[in-house]
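User: quick one, sequence for these tokens?
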């Protein structure tokens, strides 16, 4: 069996595609998204593989399946899809133009589902998001990470010099707390800045984090040599205080269900 056609892409496509007569002209179109390094939604004519249009995400891959549905009753199909990193739900028309978009509380790998849920003749759209979904969840995750980091500093500060098990426990907790703060903080930053500066903002954040890590690593040597591991842990714990204050002052944005007319 020979393929009818093939299309070379810049990255893989992991989410399920959908096929339908987008323009109500009798021509079937395959719609699917691509992963990082491409991050486009493609509309490809099924009979010959011609790319009819492609749509760039706002900062992440289209990793979830696509839904095709006639939302406005004009016989043409709208395309519902969400980019997985920023969690923006897009409604595109048959030509790939944005009809509307909705910022979801968090990233998503959930395919949109459409149905008349309450029997009023109007379609509702249901889409899921990742756990700890909204900004309140991200702030809460950072707070949890800071708590774990603080506990790690306490364990490291009180552990005797020969208590290698406690020291190892403190280091494991340090890694867990750091990971929670980094992932939640990066996600919060990504959705808190405009799409046109999101990449540069994330890059500046990573650069700043790297520079500060280099400075801290350089300073840790003399502190460890002069005062020991316990005082190093205490000083690191004190550095958590301003971050905890900023986290506590960060307001949560509530999430409410909305009807898309």
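Assistant:
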């Amino acid at each position: 069996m020979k393929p009818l056609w093939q299309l070379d892409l810049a990255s893989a496509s992991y989410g399920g595609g959908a096929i339908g007569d987008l323009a109500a002209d009798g021509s079937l179109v395959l719609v699917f998204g691509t992963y990082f390094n491409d991050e486009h939604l493609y509309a490809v004519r099924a009979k010959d593989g011609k790319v009819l249009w492609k749509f760039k995400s706002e900062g992440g891959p289209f990793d979830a399946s696509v839904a095709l549905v006639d939302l406005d009753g004009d016989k043409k199909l709208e395309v519902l899809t969400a980019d997985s990193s920023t969690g923006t739900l897009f409604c595109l028309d048959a030509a790939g133009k944005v009809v509307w978009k909705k910022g979801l509380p968090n990233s998503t790998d959930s395919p949109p589902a459409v149905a008349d849920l309450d029997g009023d003749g109007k379609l509702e759209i249901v889409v899921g998001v990742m756990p700890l979904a909204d900004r309140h969840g991200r702030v809460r995750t950072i707070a949890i990470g800071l708590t774990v980091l603080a506990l790690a500093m306490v364990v490291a500060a009180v552990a005797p010099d020969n208590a290698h098990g406690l020291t190892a426990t403190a280091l494991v907790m340090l890694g867990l707390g750091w990971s929670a703060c980094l992932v939640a903080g990066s996600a919060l930053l990504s959705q808190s800045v405009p799409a046109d500066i999101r990449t540069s903002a994330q890059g500046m954040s990573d650069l700043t984090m790297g520079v500060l890590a280099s400075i801290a690593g350089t300073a840790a040597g003399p502190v460890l040599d002069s005062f020991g591991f316990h005082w190093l842990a205490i000083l690191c714990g004190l550095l958590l205080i301003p971050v905890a204050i900023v986290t506590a002052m960060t307001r949560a944005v509530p999430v409410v269900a909305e009807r898309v007319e």
